[in-house]
Amino acid sequence: MADQRGGGISWTEETWNPLRGCSRISEGCKNCYAEAVAARFSGKGQPYEGLAKTTKDGGRWTGKVSLVEDKLDQPLRWKRARRLFVNSMSDLFHETLSDETITKIFKVMLAAPHHTYQTLTKRADRMHEYFRISRHIPTLPKNIWLGISVENQKAAEERIPFLLKSPALTRWLSIEPMLGPIVLKPEWLMGVDWVVVGGESGPDSRPFDINWARAIIAQCKTAGVAVFFKQYGSAAMEAGVPLEYKGKGSEPEAWPKDLQIRNYPEGR
Asked: In terms of pTM, does the model score above 0.85?
C-alpha cells in the first residue's frame, strides 16, 4: 500500500494494488501516470517485468495483467479503517482477467468491511457483464464503491449507463483528466453519489478549462450529488486564457472560493 494522506491522490487515504499491469483503451489513457511509473520498474527482477516497457515514446503497458498474491490479503491485515483506492496500477475489470480473479479481490473486500473501497474502471461494459453473470458477489454494500473514469462527453455517454446498471449502493465518477466540457444528464446524476473532477498533470498535459469544472460542480449541486475538485493539473486555463501557478495546482487555498470544494458522499 502507499499512504496518500500527505499528498498524491488526495481523494483517498491508501492505494491497494492486488493487480499489476494494464493497457490503453481511450483518450484518458494517453498520459497515464501508472504506465510511466510501471515502465521505470520493468527491468529484470523488478515488479513490472513483462507488464510494461520503455519505448521511444515513453512508458507503455504490454497488455499483460497479473494478480499479486502477496498483496491480496493486505486489507485483512490493516486494522485501522481507511479509504482504499483499489488498483491504482491496473484496472479491476481488464479484459484479460478471469471472473474468478475479480471475484477473489471482491471477496477480500467483503471480508474486511471496516474499510471503504474505491474501485475505478474505464471498462464499464466488462464491469456490467461481470455482475450480470456472477453468482459469487451479492449486491455490494455501501463501503464498496463502484466508479468509472469519464474524460469527455463520449466516454460519459458510453460508460455511465453501464455504471447505473451495476449492483452498487455507492456509485461515483472520476472526471479526470477532464478533456472537454461534459453535461451530466439529470437521470444519470440520480444514480450517482460522488463526482471527482480535475485537470491532467505532467509535462504533456492537455488543456483544462476550470469553467468546465464549474459547470460540473453546478450540475452536481443541483442534483444533490457530492463533488470533489482535485486539482488544476499542469495546463489549466480560464475561458481560454492560461492560468499562472506552480506545480499541478493541487493546493485548495490557492483556488477561487467556488472551486474549494472537497466533499464526500454523506454517511460514506
From this structure: yes
